[in-house]
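Standup notes, protein team

Yesterday: finished cleaning the Actibacterium mucosum KCTC 23349 set.
Today: GntR family transcriptional regulator structure.
Blockers: none.

Input for GntR family transcriptional regulator:
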Amino acid sequence: MTDTFRQSRAPLYLQITEILRQNLERGTWLPGELLPTVTELSQKYSVAKITIRQAVKILEDEGLLESRRGRGTTVLPPPPTPTPLHLGTRLSTLVDMYRGDRPTMDLLDDRKADIPGAPLIGTLSETGYHLLKRTHTRDGAVYCVIAIYIAQDVFNPREDAFRTQLALPVLVDSPDVDIARARQSLSIGKCDDTLAGMLNLAIGDPVVEVRRTLCDSNDRVIYLADVSYRSDYVRLEMDLMA
C-alpha cells in the first residue's frame, strides 16, 4: 500500500475504484479491451486481490465493466454523457441558459422562511422571504436541489409563476422588479446523506454548491438561491478576454 492511500480517509477499495474509473474515463483501457487481471492490478497498486475485486464489482454495477468466468473483465462503452449546464458568469447568460432549460420540477418545501447565513451582497428585506425548495430532473435523473428565497413583496404578485416556472427568468422578465446587483459564488463540496438520496449519489461524492444573490437599487436582497448540483452536470466556461 502506498503512502498516498494511507493519507486518505476513504476505504481502500473506494480509492482503487476511483483510480480505475479515472483510467476508464481517460481511455487507458478502451471499450472492448480486457482489463488487466486481478493479479496484475493487485501488483500495480500494491493492494490485496480482494480490494481489486471489490473495486471491479462496483464498476460492473455501474455498467462500466463486464466480467465473465474464463474470459476476464471487458471494458464496456461508457454511458451517455449528460448534457451539461453552462453556469454563466454574467446574469444575462445565466438567465438565457435557464430559458432554454425545461426540467421537471418537484416541490419539496413552500413556506415563509428566513435566509440561512449571510447573503453575498446587500441587506435583508423587512418584508421577509418565501422559500421554494425543489428538485430539477432531466431525462429521468435529478441533477440539482435548489432552495430559493424570494422577498415576500416580490413573490406575492407572481406566486403562481414562481411555483410553476424557473424562478430566475420570472424575476428578470418582471418589468416592475428592479435588479441593480447580482453575485454568484461557486464551490466544490461533498454530498451528505440527505443530498445523496435525492441526487442518487454516494455520501462524499463531489457536488457543486452555488449561492446566487440579486439585489434591487436599495441594495435589498430580493432573491437568493442555494443550489446543489451533481458535478457531472455542470460546466463553467469563461471568456478570458471579455
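Follow-up from PR in the comments: The mean pLDDT is 91.
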